[in-house]
Design brief:
Helix content is 45%, strand content 22%. It is an alpha/beta fold. It has a 7-stranded mixed sheet, with helices on both faces. Strand 6 and strand 7 (228-237) form a beta hairpin. It starts with a helix and ends with a strand.
């Protein structure tokens, strides 16, 4: 998809994808979890966990869009004393995550980060992986992230970006999906490339951030996750 067509898609679409995800049925949530069961995603989750734990040692943490709850569970395994929360717009995903996280003290609730009932200045760290580009109201939602972060708190978002180097992606992606069961390969590749076609460019992310309360306390760094050079780490601080 060209930049012009992608921009047109963004302008004319009634939802960036948030409303579709919100209505995902139980079978869809289970299918998503099964699809993500691969060495590639497993490594990605571990690498993100390490990035988070290098910043977060204890306190209160919120993951926006935790899906089946894999990242929160791994953080819990490293630090069971932390107060861990998940917020997801999909009721089906919330039910699945709660089932997966039985026996832990992780709190999962249904809701939209655009407006929450969390107290102001509550969380030490807020994180989100691969779903920020789906938010229908990113500016308002980031301002809500700012409100519920403690002063001195940090938000770490791990997101794909559309202006990645396609040549540098080809070989590592081929290696990664070669390790996935055959029947999943085409679906995983198709979904990833679809995501990359509609996710934000780095400049678009900067333009959004500059309209929020994080305008002067944000940074974007290109990173590699699971050997794929398609990711950025968005760091947001509340001062």
């Amino acid at each position: 998809m060209s930049d012009k067509n992608r921009s047109l898609w963004i302008q004319t679409k009634k939802t960036r994808g948030e409303r579709f995800y919100q209505k995902i049925p139980k079978i869809g949530a289970i299918f998503f979890e099964k699809l993500m069961d691969s060495e590639m995603i497993d490594r990605q989750i571990d690498e993100i966990k390490e990035e988070i734990l290098s910043t977060f040692s204890n306190g209160k943490l919120l993951e926006v869009g935790p899906g089946p709850g894999a990242l929160l569970h791994r953080i819990y395994q490293e630090n069971s004393n932390a107060e861990l929360h998940g917020l997801d717009v999909s009721k089906a995903m919330v039910r699945l995550a709660r089932k997966n996280l039985e026996g832990t003290n992780i709190r999962i609730k249904n809701g939209n980060i655009k407006k929450t009932d969390f107290e102001s200045d509550y969380f030490d760290l807020i994180t989100c992986t691969g779903s920020f580009y789906l938010w229908d109201d990113p500016i308002e939602s980031l301002n809500e992230v700012f409100r519920i972060l403690k002063i001195g708190g940090v938000a770490l978002f791990f997101e794909t970006y559309s202006d990645y180097d396609k040549k540098k992606l080809k070989k590592p992606l081929a290696r990664n999906i070669s390790k996935i069961k055959f029947y999943k390969r085409l679906v995983v590749k198709k979904l990833l490339l679809k995501q990359l076609s509609i996710t934000y460019s780095i400049q678009e992310v900067l333009d959004i951030l500059n309209k929020t309360s994080f305008s002067e306390t944000s940074s974007i760094e290109k990173i590699v996750l699971s050997n794929l050079p398609i990711w950025v780490k968005i760091s947001l601080q509340k001062r």
